[in-house]
Amino acid sequence: MKKIFIILIICLLLFGCKKEKFDYRNKFTGDYVFIEHGHFWALLFYDYDTTYTFNGKVSLGTKDNTIKLAGISEEPTIYEDGSLNLNLGYTDYYFRGEFESSTNLKYSYGQHALGGGFELEITGIKIKK
To answer: Would you say residue 3 lies in a domain?
Structure first.
């Protein structure tokens, strides 16, 4: 009886704990300070630049290989090397981005259409806690 009890305890210790799956995206998530530079234009009507700073989050996306970035509603695909890819589905929209390290992020997106458009360049620095 003692041997059965010891075997049962060993099995519980080995198989009783659920191991969490490693997720490479976790090293990129957290609170960030973002600096956004925007350029907006429409032929003869306006052409201006603006820059501002805001706090935001980078968090895990709803799919296994996506991430949520402050400032955009779509979730880009993130690869283990920190590069980002987002297909917006429109030919006149674009997105480019990458994590230069686990604490520095740069991405840009915009629209170039006939007569006008916009470009937003965003730099993020992770806030250390």
So the answer is: no
Give the percent of the chain with pLDDT over 90. 57
Closest to 120 in 3D by CA, of 101, 102, 93: 93
What's this model's pTM, rounded to 2 decimal places? 0.75
Nearest to 117 by CA among 83, 88, 94, 87: 94
Domain assignment of residue 80, yes or no: yes
pLDDT, tens only, 107-123: 998 988 888 999 999 99
Give every CB contact of residue 111 below 8 A, 6+ residues apart in sequence.
Answer: 90, 92, 93, 94, 117, 118
Assigned domain for 9 exists: no
Is residue 110 included in any domain, yes or no?
yes
